[in-house]
Design brief:
Elements (H helix, E strand, L loop, with lengths): L9 E5 L3 H7 L4 H22 L3 E8 L7 H24 L3 E5 L7 H14 L6 E8 L1 H21 L8 H7 L14 E4 L18 E4 L9 H11 L15
Parallel strand pairs: 1-2, 1-5, 2-4, 3-4, 5-6
Length: about 250
């Protein structure tokens, strides 16, 4: 019998449904994003209290630039608001922040706020909270390949030729060597009823458990999160293998 897991070490969340939530209330999309930020705060606290070691959220994808200028600008302003309002509590709760993605394309004031968030929490050793920002799974893999090519060119100058391995690719991802080898997510949750990864952690999710809910992100509660963690604890993970009785 495969072992039953008690607690996922790493949970990743696709926070979907802010716009639809706002539309249902006849409010602008940014009203939904603000409500989504409040939901995210609650889940961070819940994950920390439950003893989950890593929480990763999909905050802004490389494809989100296609949205209106007003919405994109508003999202970046919300980032600054989040840092200003939550930094003290994040520090007090021993949360360590990482950014996955190339956030240097963001407005200068947003970059400065993010740098402050990362710097002020870097010594914390509690929950590792990864924010995927200007992130895309394919872009991440391309970035890793380009980094490996640079390494290979240096090796060629030394007369060394080595095949690329899975471990090497993993180590060059945003979750790899830059952030102390964050483990692959045990569980990926997506809200709003959609059932796809949408270019999120596509390398790392090879053996992740998946859970979906019709709940729109602003309505997603710590109670529903805890229910999903409980369901995960009873799943049997085989990682491509089979149980003995199936052989």
């Amino acid at each position: 019998m495969s072992e039953i897991n008690k607690m996922p070490a790493h949970v990743a969340v696709i926070m979907d449904g802010n716009g639809r939530w706002a539309r249902g209330k006849n409010r602008p999309r940014l009203f939904g994003h603000n409500a989504g930020m409040q939901a995210m705060k609650k889940i961070v606290i819940a994950a920390s209290n439950m003893g989950i070691k890593y929480l990763t959220v999909y905050a802004f994808s490389t494809e989100n630039w296609k949205r209106s200028t007003e919405e994109v600008s508003g999202i970046f302003k919300l980032i600054i608001k989040y840092v200003d309002s939550e930094l003290k509590e994040l520090i007090e709760n021993n949360v360590h922040i990482n950014i996955l993605g190339n956030y240097n394309m963001l407005p200068v004031d947003s970059i400065e706020a993010i740098d402050k968030l990362v710097d002020k929490t870097k010594a914390n050793d509690g929950l590792v909270f990864n924010i995927a920002l200007n992130y895309g799974g394919r872009d991440e893999i391309v970035h890793a390949i380009n980094e490996i090519i640079i390494d290979r060119e240096a090796m060629a100058d030394q007369g060394v030729s080595v095949d690329v391995t899975e471990d090497e690719v993993s180590s060059h991802l945003y979750t790899g060597v830059l952030h102390n080898d964050i483990p692959d997510p045990d569980l990926i949750i997506r809200t709003s009823g959609e059932e796809r990864l949408s270019n999120f952690l596509i390398w790392q999710s090879a053996y992740s458990e998946m859970m979906f809910t019709d709940t729109l992100w602003p309505d997603y509660s710590p109670e529903e999160f805890a229910e999903m963690i409980g369901e995960f604890s009873h799943r049997k993970r085989r990682f491509g293998g089979r149980e003995k009785e199936d052989r």
